[in-house]
Specification:
Two copies of one chain form a homodimer. Chain A is an all-alpha fold. In chain A, 71% of the residues lie in helices and 0% in strands.
């Protein structure tokens, strides 16, 4: 549904329409297979207009999800530093974002993803292609192992967010970030770079 | 809202009314502080009738949540065995339940808990008092450390359920259980019984 507002109806409606088409196409095809061309077609506009309004496909994806953060900047920053503390830095980054005003949007998105299949797909694409894939790329991890390592990281980070911010289970809900980093950082580190016997193909 | 059905209206209505009062009181007061007396009063019946229909407070709680499993039986079973593999056994148990027909109800409950504050409270009470507290008790863990250890286990087990069953992120979504046990069992073990420097009060 296109929201009609009083001011500059043409531009605003076009932008809204592109964002809605983007959500549909990204959820249906996934981030990698979605094309700006297909999104433009679904919105009934020229691809050049999509680029004009939103820049790259990646930026369009972030805009379509109302993402308050840009993983392309944050993840390389967090991953820079000693490889053996990457897990701690990733947990610290997640807590910093979710504890900030941006966390409110993140909680809302997560709630919605739990009850809505389309939001779930968008969130999965966001987490996998924008967050985890970048983290893995920075760490130079074996390509065959990367998908399972990334998904394991998602189980721990997603669960931390759920227990701390959605279900608010104490004492995790009000624990100081540094204690959670000390507890959960090593888990994420092991999933990222540790030996995982019995986990990969025989 | 009490559902009116044609058959044995008195009994069915009374039972429904007790279950609804139970959900309200358990969510408001928490499992420990909720009393059968208060639930009976809210339903406008005699406490003896609540015991007659549902047995103990614990059984009433399971009934009020439509729990397809009884943690009082399952957890001690899973925890029995070598202490250093308790984490693996707990992950294996969770996967066995969620992969079974009972998992459908569990997914529905989890979805609902994400979007509904009352269901979230009931689920939190269920996970903490019925599942984690029992697991911790079986392992004879320091009382002061138990709450944070239990909540850390919840972050990993809850996240596993979310990624595998709700968001369905591959390859975790379709991984054979034994690979997930190999990957995630050691995490849960560390949270249950491992050294966790920097996590507890200084």
């Amino acid at each position: 549904m296109v929201r009609r507002s009083g001011r500059r109806p043409g531009n605003q409606d076009t932008k809204q329409s592109i964002l809605e088409s983007a959500r549909t196409v990204f959820a249906e095809a996934g981030f990698d297979k979605a094309s700006v061309r297909a999104i433009a077609a679904a919105a009934g506009v020229d691809p050049a207009l999509v680029h004009h309004y939103f820049g790259t496909k990646e930026k369009l994806f972030l805009a379509s999800m109302n993402s308050p953060i840009n993983p392309a900047e944050l993840i390389p920053e967090a991953m820079a530093g000693p490889r053996e503390q990457a897990g701690e830095r990733l947990v610290a980054l997640v807590l910093r974002i979710w504890d900030s005003p941006a966390g409110v949007a993140a909680v809302a998105l997560m709630r919605s993803a739990m009850s809505n299949e389309w939001t779930a797909r968008l969130m999965r694409e966001f987490v996998v292609t924008q967050v985890l894939r970048r983290a893995i790329a920075e760490l130079d991890i074996d390509e065959k192992e990367a998908p399972i390592r990334a998904a394991l990281v998602a189980t721990q980070i997603g669960g931390l967010a759920m227990i701390r911010y959605l279900l608010k289970v104490e004492p995790v809900a009000s624990a100081p970030p540094e204690r959670l980093v000390a507890a959960i950082g090593p888990t994420v580190q092991r999933y990222l770079t540790g030996d995982l016997p019995g986990v990969f193909d025989a």
